[in-house]
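Postdoc handover notes: sequence design on the structure in folder B. Input tokens:
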């Protein structure tokens, strides 16, 4: 397990977590993640909640839940950066764009999720395993 650190764009919100970097990144291509980011999906890491902590700026973390759905996004109230949030009862998702580059050296996307709903203009160009839905 490696200690990994990150922050929002304007820096008041920072966090750290322990994760196995050999499991590397996943990228979700679902329509919800595309709308939340304005991109062709979101790349991220997963960490156990017990291995995650906010270091600063927790008061700037705001969440929004999609009505009648279990999907929640977290963001910084100052700069709007997407922030880590609950993946499920035991785990957090951490958007890769928030992680300091020095922790991502040599890491690549190993899983592409919800590829059945990927953007028609998005092309997957790496060796990550494709999953039509979530990891099966």
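Designed sequence:
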């Amino acid at each position: 397990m490696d200690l990994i650190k990150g922050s929002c764009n304007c820096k008041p919100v920072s966090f750290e977590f322990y994760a196995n970097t050999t499991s590397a990144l996943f990228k979700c291509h679902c329509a919800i993640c595309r709308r939340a980011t304005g991109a062709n999906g979101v790349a991220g890491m997963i960490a156990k909640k017990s291995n995650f902590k906010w270091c600063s700026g927790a008061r700037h973390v705001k969440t929004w839940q999609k009505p009648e759905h279990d999907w929640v996004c977290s963001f910084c109230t100052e700069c709007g950066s997407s922030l880590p949030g609950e993946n499920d009862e035991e785990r957090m998702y951490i958007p890769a764009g928030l992680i300091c580059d020095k922790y991502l050296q040599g890491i690549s996307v190993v899983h592409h999720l919800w590829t059945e709903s990927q953007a028609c203009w998005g092309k997957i160009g790496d060796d990550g395993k494709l999953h039509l839905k979530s990891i099966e």
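Context for whoever picks this up: Helices lie at 31-37. Don't rerun without checking with the PI first.
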